[in-house]
Amino acid sequence: MNPExxxxxxxxxxxxxxxxxxxxxxxxxxxxxxxxxxxxxxxIDLTTLSGDDTPGKVRQLCYKALHVHDAYPGLPTVAAVxxxxxxxxxxxxxxxxxxxxxxxxxxxFPSGQSxxxxxxxxxxxxxxxxxxxxxMVISRGRxxxxxxxxxxxxxxxxxxxxxxxxxxVILETGELSTLDNVRRASDLAMHAGADFIKTSTGKIAxxxxxxxxxxxxxxxxxxxxxxxxxxxxxxAGGIRDSxxxxxxxxxxxxxxxxxxxxxxxxxxGASSLANDLLMQLEKQRTGRYQSADYFSLD
Amino acid sequence: xxxxxxxxxxxxxxxxxxKYDPAPESVEHIKVNKQYEHYIGGSWKSPNEGKYFxxxxxxxxxxxxxxxxxxxxxxxxxxxxxxxxFGPWSALPGKERGKWLFKLARxxxxxxxxxxxxxxxxGGKPIRESKAVDIPLAAAHFFYHAGWADKLTYAFPGRxxxxxxxxxxxxxxxxxxxxxxxxxxxxxxxxxxVVLKPAETTPLTALKLAELIDDLGFPPGxxxxxxxxxxxxxxxxxxxxxDKIAFTGSTDVGKEIQxxxxxxxxxxxxxxxxxAANIILEDAAIDQAVEGIINGIYFxxxxxxxxxxxxxxxxxxxxxxxxxxxxxxxxxxxxxxLDKNTDIGAINSRAQLKTIQKYIELGxxxxxxIFQCEGSLPDGKGFWCKPTLFTGLAQSSTLVKEEIFGxxxxxxxxxxxxxxxxxxxxxxxxxxxxxxTDKGAKIFKMTTKLKAGIIWxxxxxxxxxxxxxxxxxESGFGREGGLHGLSAYVTF
Amino acid sequence: MAEKKIKxxxxxxxxxxxxxxxxxxxxxxxxxxxxxxxPRTESGRYTPITLNDNSVVNICEGSRKDFREAVVxxxxxxSGWSKRTAYNRGQxxxxxxxxxxxxxxxxxxxxxxxxxxNPAGEVDASIDRIVHYAGWSDKYQQVFSTVNPVSGPYFNxxxxxxTGVVAIICPQHNPLLALITNLLAGVVSGNACILIIPxxxxxxxxxxxxxxxxxxxxxxVVNIITGSEAELVPHVSGHMDVNAVVYASDHQDILxxxxxxxxxxxxxxIARQYEDWSDAELEGPYLISDTVEIKTxxxxxxx
Lengths: 298, 492, 303
Hints:
The structure holds three protein chains of three kinds.
Chain A: H1 13-24, H2 30-42, E1 44-47, H3 55-67, E2 80-83, H4 88-95, E3 101-106, H5 116-129, E4 133-137, H6 140-144, H7 148-162, E5 166-170, H8 179-192, E6 196-198, H9 210-227, E7 232-234, H10 242-256, E8 268-270, H11 273-286
Parallel strand pairs in A: 1-2, 1-8, 2-3, 3-4, 4-5, 5-6, 6-7
Helix pairs in contact in A: 1-9, 2-10, 2-11, 3-4, 5-7, 7-8, 8-9, 9-10
Chain B: E1 35-36, E2 38-40, E3 43-45, E4 52-57, E5 62-68, H1 72-91, H2 94-110, H3 112-123, H4 127-148, H5 152-155, E6 162-163, E7 166-170, H6 176-189, E8 193-197, H7 204-216, E9 223-225, H8 230-238, E10 244-248, H9 251-260, E11 267-271, E12 277-280, H10 286-298, E13 310-314, H11 318-330, H12 350-365, E14 369-372, E15 388-391, H13 398-401, E16 408-414, H14 417-425, E17 432-436, H15 440-449, E18 454-457, E19 476-477, H16 482-486, E20 490-491
Parallel strand pairs in B: 1-5, 7-8, 7-10, 8-9, 10-11, 12-13, 12-17, 13-16, 15-16, 17-18
Antiparallel strand pairs in B: 2-3, 4-5, 6-20, 11-19, 14-15
Chain C: E1 46-50, E2 56-60, H1 64-83, H2 86-102, H3 104-113, H4 119-136, H5 140-144, E3 146-147, E4 154-162, E5 165-169, H6 175-187, E6 192-197, H7 202-213, E7 222-226, H8 229-238, E8 244-247, H9 252-261, E9 268-271, H10 286-290, E10 292-300
Parallel strand pairs in C: 5-6, 5-8, 6-7, 8-9
Antiparallel strand pairs in C: 1-2, 3-4, 4-10
C-alpha cells in the first residue's frame, strides 16, 4: 500500500475547538454520572512509566488495579496496567488470571529515536515477557520530514512483531503541531495496522487534549465506514480528574456511539484518574464532597 | 493489514446504553409576574383599552403571564413620552449617554441567568443557547454601542451626525432580548429615544429589561416598551411623530411597512427574511463543515433569518456529507428547553409549528426524500418538531425557494463553483451565505460573488456587536452593528 | 428641364436651418442610449422641444419597454463593470472628463439653447465633478471598509459592494451637472445605471451619451432614456430587477409613489433633492455610499 495515497480531509482548528466547547457543556448528573464514572474506571490503563520504577512500585500498582473496587461491589476493574518492558514480567505475574491486561510501551519509548531492528527486538521482548498490549511510538521526526512511507512501514512491521498482542500506536500529538498532522498520522497508523491509536506518551506537553481526541475519533469513524474495522482510541496524559474523563466520554459517545463505549475500544492512559473516580463515586454515594486523604495513593 | 469486513453493515449506534439524565436549569429565584403593563415614560401603564393577551411557554403550552395589548392610544402615549424625552436625552453629552448604556450592559450581565431562563421559558430556545449566545451578546451590544456615544464624529469623517428623533422599533420572536439590544443600543447611543414593540409571543425579556431600566433610574421616556401584536406595530409605524422605523421580521411585513411610510420622510431600516445557501466544496474540512451545517440550520430550531437553510454540496462528496450529517443529527438532544443538554428546544408557537409542518408535507409532495432522526418527541402540549433534512429537491422546489423559519434543511448538489454560485444567488433574498473550502483563492472568489450581506467562510452563524449585519435585495436594507450600523440612526 | 436656381438664403427659414453661408444644415436626431447603442424609442413617440434659437428638436419619449430593455442590458453589463479593477474604472471615468472638456463649447451651446443660467459654469463644474468622482473609484472602499474586532478567533471585515442596477431620475434644473453627479456617484462603485431624463434636457443628455460612448465605458453600464418622469416612474419603481432608485427630481408626489412601489422588491430609494447641484455637499464619498451594500465576511483564524 502506498501511504501517500491515503486521503485525509483537512481539519479546521477553530471548528474543532468550537465543537469541543459544545461537547464540554454537556451536563452529566446522577445515575448517568455514576454509570460514566464506572465506565471510565473500566477503561483505565493504570500507568507507571518512570526511570525510577521498581518491581516494588509495579507490585503496588498491580495491587491497586486488583483491589481498587473492593469497597464498591460491582465496580469494574481497570482495563490494564501499563509499564516499561523491564517491568512487564512483574506485572504479568501479579495480574495473572485477573483479566487485567498487561500493556508495555516499546520502540524506544518515548522518543522513538532508535533503529527499526532494535525497536522490533524490544517489541518482541515485551511480548515474550507477557505483554498482551504494546504501546509503540511513531517516528515523529520522520513524519514531520514527510517520510510517511517510513512511518507506515515501521508501524506495519511492529504490528507483525506484536504477534497476538494488540498494538496501540502513539502519535505524540504534542509534537505534531497541527490537527491536520494529527488526522494524517491517525489515518496512516490505522491503515498500517494499529488496533488502537493513542495521543501521547505523557512525556510531552500538551499530552491528550479534547480537540486532538475528537479529530482522532473522527478518523476512526471514517476508517470504520471505509473498511468496517473498528479501531480503538486511547487519550493519554493529563487526564487527572473525573470531570475531564467525563468530557472525553461525552465526546466518544457523540462521535462513535455505543460500540466504542467499552474498554475493548477506548482506554484512558492515566494514573491519578482512578482515585478521583473513586472520590466522585463516593460523593455520589454519600452526598459528601471527599478529601484525597481517604483514598490511597499508589 | 487489509482487515476487510462487511462494510455495508457499518453503522454507528447513537442510541447508547449510557444516557444523559435530565439536567434541568433551576427556575428558583426567577420571578415572572402574573401580568405586565406597558412601560411608558418611566412608569408602568395599564393599556388604555384594558386589553391583555397571554404569553405561553411553548414547551408546555401553558400561560406564563398576561401581557398588555397596545392600542393606538397607548402608542400615542409612548411616542409622546419619547418625544418629550428626546430633547434632554439628545442634549446630554455623549459621555453621559454612554455611561447609561454601560450601566445597562453591566446590569444585564449581572442578571444574565435570570434573563436566560426567562428567554428559554418564553421562547422555547435551549437554555444552553440563551446562556451562551442571546444574553451575553445582548450585553455586549450595549457595551459596544455605549462606547460610541461620545465618538460619533469619528464615525463619519467630514460630517456632523445628529440624532433623528424618536425611533419606532419592532422586533421578532426568535432572539427577543438580543434583538431588543440590537435595536436599542445604536438608537440610544446616537441620541435618539425609542418606542420598542417586542413580539407578541416573546415579550417577557423585554419587559424584564424594562424592570432593569426602571431599577437603574434611566431617564424616563428614553426607552418605552409597548407590547402587542401586528396592530400595535402598525400603529407605531403609522404614528406621525415617529422619525425612524427599524423593523426586523418577515419580508412580507417589511414590504408593507416600506409601502405604508412612503412619502412620510421617516427613515427606515429593514432586516428581513433569508434563504441562505451553505456551500460545501469537496476540499472542505468536512467534519467541521458538517458541524457548520448543523449549527447553520438547527441553531435556535432554525428560527433564524440568516439560517443556512439550503445546503449546496459538491456532488463528489454528497453521499459522505449526508451520511455524516445524519449521524450528527442523531446526536441532537431534543426536548425541554430548560435542560442543559437540550440542543433543539420547542418551536416558538403553535402557529409557527403549523407553518413548518405544512412545509414538511409539501417537501414530501414535491418529491423530496425526508430524513428525521429516530426517537420520540417530548409528550405534553408543547410545540415540537424534529430536525429535518430533505434531499432530492430541485431548484424550483418550494422548500428551496421559501423561508421556512424552522429546523428544515433542503439539500441540493452541484458540480462546479459556477453552478454553486448561480444556485446560491438564484433567490430574491440576500441576507447571508456560507462557504466551506480549504483553498484561500476559492474562498475569496465565492465570498465576493455571493450576493449577501453576511458571508461566513468556514464557519456559520457567528454574531458580534462589532460586525455589521443586514442583507442585500429582499432581505432588507441598512445594517445593524458595527460602525456601519450607526448611520441608520443619524442625520447630517 | 432646367430648374430655377434659388439661393438657400433666399428661402425663408425661421429656425436656423440654414447657415449664413447659405448651406442647409444637417440636423441631429436625438435617440435613446441603451446598451451602448442609440436606438429610437420603441414607442415611436417624441416630444418636440423648441430651443432658444427657435429650432425644434425631437426628443424620444421613452416607454416602459425601452426601460425594460435598458434593465436587461444594464444587468448584463453590471457584473463585468464591477469586476474591473477600481483603477481601470477610475481611468475610464476620468476619460469622460477629457472627452467632455474637448466638447466644452458644444455643451455650453446646448445649455444655452435650453435656457440655462450659467452654461459655461455648469460645464466647468460638471467636468470637475467627473474628475472628483473618478478619483474616488479606488478610495471610497478604504473610507467605508472596516476590520471588525469580534470577540473570537475570527478575521472579520466589511466592504462596500455595488447595489447592482440603479435607476436615476434626473431633475430639470442643472441639466448636465445633476446628471453627471448622480451618474458618477452611481457608476463609480460598479453599479450600472439607467437615467431618466426630462425631454427638455434630452439634447444635453443624449449628446453626453456620445461622450460616454467614446470614453471606453462598456455598453450598458450607462443607459439614458428621455421621457416623461410621471409616465416612467411606475415602471421604474415596480420593476423587480432594479435594485435602487435615486430620485433627484423634485415632485414630492412622485417620490411618494416611488417609495411606495419600490416595496415590491425592497428597493433602496434615495431622495436627492438640491436646488443647486454645485453644492459642495455633493462631493465626497457619501453619495457613493447610498448605492452600495456592505458585505461582512467572517473567517476563522487558526491552522
